[in-house]
C-alpha cells in the first residue's frame, strides 16, 4: 500500500477532518436500569397505524423495547403507569418481562401515526405475546386508573 493509500485509510489524507460528529447526535432517551436476557436477539420494526387504530391488543415483550415516534401520536400504556400520548419526536420504552403493554395505538382520528421500535427478545420466547382476557381480569388491579372523558 502506498503512503497515500495508507493515509486515506486512516483518515489523514490531508483533508480537514469533520467535527460534525461531535454535535450531530442528540440524546433522545436514556433508559435505566435495563435487563437484556442472556442470548437475546434484537429486532427493529417500523409500525404504521391508520387514523384511530387502537394498535396491538394487550401484550408483553420478553425483553426491553425502545421506540421513537416519527409521525403522529401514539397512545401508550404500560401496566401500573397512566396512559399517555407520545407525539412525533418523542420516545417511549418498556422494560419487558412480566408487564402488560395495554396500548400502542394511534391517538389521532384524522391522521396516520408511524413509529420505530427496537425490541430485545429472550431466547426461545416470542417477540410479542398476546395477553388473554382471563389474565387481564386477574391483573386488573395493577392497571392505572383510566382517564375520564
What is the compact description of this entry?
The protein is mainly beta.
- List segments where confidence is low: pLDDT < 50 over at least 5 consecutive residues: none
Helices and strands, in order, run as HHEEEEEEEEEH
Shape: globular
Beta-strand residue fraction: 25-35%
Q: How many individual helices?
A: 3
Gyration radius, rounded: 21 Å
Count the E strands. 9
CATH homology-level superfamily of the domain at 31-132:
Jelly Rolls
The side-by-side strand order for the widest beta sheet comes to: 1-8-3-6
In whole angstroms, the N-to-C terminal distance is 71 Å
**Class inferred from helices and paired strands:** mainly beta
Account of the protein in words:
This protein is mainly β and 149 residues long. It has a domain at 31-132: Jelly Rolls. It contains three helices and nine strands, in the order ααβββββββββα. The chain has a four-stranded antiparallel beta sheet with strand order 1-8-3-6, with no helix packed on it. Strand 4 and strand 5 (84-87) form a beta hairpin. The longest helix has 7 residues, at 3-9. The protein is globular and about 65 Å long. The termini are far apart. The mean pLDDT is 87.
